[in-house]
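Extended Data, panel c. Modelled sequence:
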Amino acid sequence: MSSDGSRRGSDDVQGAGFGGLLRRHRRDAGLSQEGLAELAGLSVDAIAALERGRRRAPRAHTLRLLADALRLNSAERTQLTTSARNDTESPQPVLRRPPAPPNELIGRTVELTATKRLLSQRITRLLTLTGPGGVGKTRLAMAVAAELSDDFPDSVCWVPLASLTNAERVAPAVAASIGLHPMDSTRLIEEIAEQIGQRTLLLVFDNCSHVVSSVGQVCAALLESCPNLSILAASRELLRVPGENVYVVPPLALPPEADEPEVSAAVRLFVDRASARGYDPAGQLEQVARVVRRLEGMPLAIELAAARTNVMTIEELAGELETSFGILAGGDRTASPRQQSMRGAIEWSHDLLTPAERDVFAQLSVFVGGWTLGAAAMVMSGDAAPGPVARAEALDLTGRLVDKSLIRVTRHRGVARYYMLAVIREFAADRLQTTSSVDEAVRRHAHFYIGLAEQAERELRGANQEEWLERLQSELDNLRAAMAWALQTRSAGEALRLSGALWLFCYLRGHYAEGSQWLERSLALLPAADEAAPALAKANLGAGMLAFLQCEYDVATTRLQTALTQYKELKDSAGTALVLQRLGGVARERGDYATAETLNCQSYDLFEEVGDQSGMSWAHNHLGFAAWLRGDLDVAARRCGRARDSFRVLGDGEGLAWSLISLGAIAQYKGELVEAEGLLQESLTLSQRLGYREGVAWSLNQLGIVERRRGLTERAVHLLDESLAEHRDLGDRWRSASVLEELAAVAQHRGRSEYAAFLLGAADGVREVIQAPVPEVEKPDYLATRSAVEESLERRAFRTAWSAGRSAPLAAVADGYPFPSPDPDRSRRL
């Protein structure tokens, strides 16, 4: 070989080692790896492994075979042997190890177990941990890497990408992490693959989002060439390469809504990080729970909030977070800017979006509590009924934001629902405010939900009642936002349409006070006018009904009489009949059973004229209701039985529940307790399934009476207490008074005469305020209880307890005031 060739060989020994020298000799000989392998009697993989340094310390026999095949002279043979010896004595390439975690991993047992299984059992060779910034992907990746060290005998290698500013630097970053310093950058991926070869290795890519396309290409190439390689990637966006399995890292578990919040993972993280700042909040777990619920369990947000305990109380912190997430800043100085504040974390993701994605991201912030594809398509396109093209575009853009972890997806009963975490939505809303389309986006949002409410109104009296109640409940926050827009912009027509369409839902789901406020404020926007007469009539009807349910009988009567006049002017027989039923309800609760019967008979006749089977069934039910309250149980049974049979055919869940309650009450007043229990349990189950709170409260009330009649007072107290809580929360003071009188009967039965007098006084105070007497059917039990209590107490003691009850607020009465007991079991207090 020429002196120049020898010099090049010497350079290879010094600069590239044995592998580089062998490759140089092979190329000088004009041979491929396959050609050299054939001449030397070795495998192609063996040649590749020697050249790439994957195989070291070749045997002397192998060296002779190679030298002979390459026709090396004596000096070149000695040089090759020396180079092999030097490589054998030199250290192996050092892999970058995963960083040691700075603190304890809290609340990730489930996630750690699931991700370990996927990789250790080779269920997948490429697992992407995805989720929004601040959810804890990197921290979980560290823990997974540490746990899997024994499952990958050739080690776990950490590839940090956060500092990269150029996608072309991904492959060099991988090479550096595995200890490879290649001479030829044009074949870098191939050289990395050759370096890894057959090794059982786990590569962990961290912070991939800003170079995700390049990371995906590198991963796909390496997995194809290296059969024993596995990859774990932490990325806000999916890699979208063949074989990728995705694990969405959820926020930390939140404490349940309870008086004594459990120490959930989110609470434990806050306490741990606040303690690290020198403040121990262990005695304020209820306030901590309030904070972490507001932060929806996001680990970075919780850590940033906990850091603020060095200058704020937890109460102040919770208050600040109710209005803004701006205080979530001031993270560790060593962290990247996007980890020092929640805004920085979200801004990092936002900056990676395309202009179209940014526009949609901002527009979708108008939704509160989630949305469906149809709602998104309406807001994006402005079409009242978006066609296939608009829906496809909405789906594509929504999907992109889901893949980038800015939107989350839930699936329930065959419907996909999308939502943003609160901190992300606040950022998106800020972006929307800077655009000229903000007013239009909010208007489109409101109009979509007005249309939805009107569609639901038509379905709430039929077989699809349960489905539509659930749908409206899931959209309640959006409906509230739409109502707020209509009221704030003084859009009277829209406000009347929305509030009028929602009053039945508000009744069925127990939103009496809120629905009343919407209706009253909407009615105040617009005086009666011909073009708005149908909407005005419906709004007055709804306002009257919800006032009646809260025992505001005078207000209810005024509103209902107005609605009656309007429906008659419109010649709307069905509307007129419906108002007559509601006026009959007012008369019934005030003890005027004759008027109630007359009004409901008139209602029946009108419904019969227009052929409204549902209205006729409701008239039967109301007539039966009034009949059993006045004590005519046989007439009531016939009326309510017909109503029940009709409601079953119609599929009206509310009507069926009510007729079952009436039939159950009739049975228990007849002393047929087994039959009564069966009917009332059926109504309770149905009401609970529908979320029909009034039905639940009434069923519990009557079941409590059944148990009291059986002498099972402890069970009776439990049922009556639950009923009282429901009626009190609904604002139904009429029924609350009856439940208090039943509780008084139980208290007297258990020898608690003074407390029984207190309860009777409380009931009397409620009845005086609402001007509603004890129903006729309940009077025998009421008078028996009062007589027994008066006989058991001295007159002065009775009057003292009675007066205390009359003056006590209803909420305090439910808690046993002024007769507290150290025993939290109310049944024992009674």
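The chain is about 65% helix and 5% strand. This feature is highlighted in the accompanying rendering.
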